[in-house]
Write a structure and sequence with these properties.
Layout lengths: L1 H16 L1 H20 L5 H4 L25 H29 L4 H18 L2 H4 L11 H29 L1 H35 L3 H16 L1 H4 L16 E6 L3 H13 L7 E7 L1 H12 L7 E6 L12 H5 L3 H8 L3 H4 L16 H4 L4 H4 L5 E5 L3 E3 L16 E3 L19 H6 L11 E5 H7 L1 H11 L11 H7 L4 E3 L5 E2 L10 H5 L3 E3 L13 H8 L7 H5 L5
Parallel strand pairs: 1-2, 1-4, 2-3, 6-8, 9-10
Antiparallel strand pairs: 4-7, 5-10, 6-7
């Protein structure tokens, strides 16, 4: 210590002797050093603390201005203290930001908080605080060196922690990673949706083994005993064309579903003999349908079973959908069964089902020609159940309208805009996008008003225009909404409650008060995927006493 003091006195003597000569140079050096210490590189905090570094290929020695041994002790103390205080503020800011971001690594938050507390405690140590009470000539150099050493150690550790935590605080990097993650998850979600929709479609449209068995057993019976079930050569019963009776139209290729519709309607009417059911199927299922409805009396109700092929006027020269089915492009759209084609458009996948161009599905537009002697008829889908007497429908004043139906719109839902392409000028000019839609499934038709309004011709006009599917997606509801745009009579909602094939949250009071409940949707009651709490509403009308139904274990 003594030698050090001696050297300093000698040095000050030399400086005093040559003060006048070197004063300009000293001022310049002092100003330069002050500038460097004040305007340090702002990236120094992120680049780490360097007490020394070496240039490539040289022995260039770079020392921080804060630790230069030739500096006066007071400025050195101030700069060391400032560096420590700056790093205290830095770790406090990082700790606060980490808490704000709610980082998953809570350990990192604790480390920053502890570092901040450590800097605070360190800067308040009496031994170091006392250095500030000394004048520039009496500063204890060993204490200053100890302060410098501890500050350097803390700064080094602080910057290591910050460097390791940098990724957690790099917002841009986090945003990019988040975007990549979201994109990958969206890709997976889209793929899963497509596969799920395709699987759901297969589950909904596949024929259960028991139902397939029933159709085969009934057909076997029809082949074995043709004389018992054939009506060939027999004149039609007069009741079949009697306009004074209550007539129903059911178009289906599902034997058990059609039988449930008829059975439920008959059981809920007081005079079954006044009711006539017109069941139309395809040629393949005609035999099975004939046997099914001949094996039971149905309370004296009259049942006519025919094939669509029996109506010879329904051919491709007259029916637009039959003509369109001859198109190679449309056949590819419907019958190319590769999964990548079937799942290109998830939202419209259901429309790729060929049933939407099936003539059975479009027979509803030819009722006046199929039943020329009738004045009124009730159309029923094969996925409905009748719960009350429906004869009250024949007493409703239709006000000259053609179609009596329950409206389905509420708020902005189930409006015309959801079923048609209003960017097409023809649709935009003719219809209102806010017009209320209604439901197929139970529709009461005034056939005289139909003939007067020429609704079938109107349907043909629009169906021909939609050959390329530019006016609406496929199905029968959009052309129905168009055909009966101004000729639909709204019915009370209690006549027809929908959604039992997709919505498990329908109120049971609403269901119990309905005249007709409709299992529209993919979860049909004869499938394993049916909604459990609604299935019994349908199964109670299945004819389990039928030998063939029992033999095929239907419902088990």
């Amino acid at each position: 210590m003594w030698t050090d003091r001696l050297r300093r006195r000698r040095f000050r003597g030399i400086i005093g002797f040559r003060f006048a000569a070197v004063l300009p140079l000293t001022v310049f050096v002092f100003l330069a050093l002050s500038f460097l210490s004040t305007y340090a590189d702002p990236t120094d905090i992120d680049n780490g603390y360097r007490s020394s570094s070496y240039g490539s290929g040289t022995n260039f020695h770079r020392r921080s201005i804060l630790v230069s041994k030739s500096d006066p002790l007071k400025p050195r103390l101030d700069q060391i203290w400032k560096q420590a205080d700056d790093h205290k503020s830095l770790v406090s800011a990082y700790a606060s930001y980490a808490r704000k971001l709610k980082l998953e690594n809570s350990k990192l938050v604790r480390v920053f908080a502890e570092l901040s507390r450590d800097f605070t405690e360190f800067l308040t140590k009496p031994v170091y605080r006392s250095l500030f009470d000394m004048d520039a000539n009496s500063i204890d150099e060993p204490a200053l060196k100890m302060l410098e050493k501890e500050v350097k150690e803390r700064i080094k550790y602080t910057r290591q922690v910050i460097a390791e935590a940098k990724e957690s605080f790099d917002n841009q990097l986090k945003i990019h990673k988040l975007k990549d993650t979201i994109f990958a998850l969206n890709e997976q979600l889209t793929k899963a949706k497509k596969q799920g929709a395709f699987s759901s479609l297969i589950a909904a449209k596949s024929i259960p083994k028991s139902l397939h068995c029933l159709a085969l057993r009934l057909m076997e019976e029809r082949i074995a005993h043709p004389e018992k079930y054939s009506d060939a050569g027999n004149p039609p019963k007069p009741e079949i064309e009697d306009p004074k009776l209550y007539h129903y139209a059911i178009f289906s290729d599902n034997v058990i579903a059609a039988s449930v519709v008829v059975n439920s309607a008959v059981k809920n009417t007081e005079e079954p003999s006044k009711h006539v059911f017109h069941v139309v199927t395809d040629k393949m299922n005609l035999g099975a349908m004939q046997v099914m409805f001949k094996m039971r009396d149905y309370g004296g109700a009259h049942i006519e079973v025919k094939a669509v092929e029996d109506y010879t006027f329904l051919n491709s020269s007259y029916v637009p959908v039959l003509k369109q089915l001859e198109s190679a492009k449309l056949q590819q759209f419907y019958f190319d069964n590769r999964i990548e084609n079937a799942t290109k458009d998830t939202s419209n996948m259901k429309f790729r089902n060929p049933k939407y161009l099936s003539i059975l599905n479009h027979l509803r537009f030819y009722l006046p020609e199929m039943y020329p002697k009738l004045h009124k008829i009730l159309f029923l889908d094969d996925d409905i159940v009748v719960q009350k007497d429906l004869t009250g429908l024949w007493k409703i004043d239709m006000d000259g309208k053609v179609n009596g139906a329950v409206e389905t719109c509420f708020g902005s839902f189930h409006r015309y805009a959801q079923y048609m392409n209003f960017s097409h000028p023809l649709i935009k000019a003719k219809f209102s996008p806010k017009a209320c839609a209604w439901a197929y499934g139970m529709n009461f038709f005034d056939l005289d008003a139909w003939r007067r309004e020429k609704c079938t011709e109107e349907y043909h006009y629009w169906q021909n225009l939609n050959e390329n599917r530019t006016l609406w997606k496929l199905g029968t509801l959009p052309p129905g909404l168009i055909t009966y745009y101004s000729t639909t009579k709204p019915l009370d909602k209690s006549w027809h409650v929908l959604g039992l094939g997709y919505n498990p949250n329908i109120n049971m009071d609403e269901i119990n008060n309905a005249a007709v409940i409709h299992f529209n949707g993919n979860m049909k009651p004869w499938l394993d995927i049916a909604i459990p709490q609604f299935r019994s509403l349908w199964t109670k009308f299945v004819d389990y006493e039928n030998d063939y139904v029992q033999a095929c274990n239907f419902g088990l």
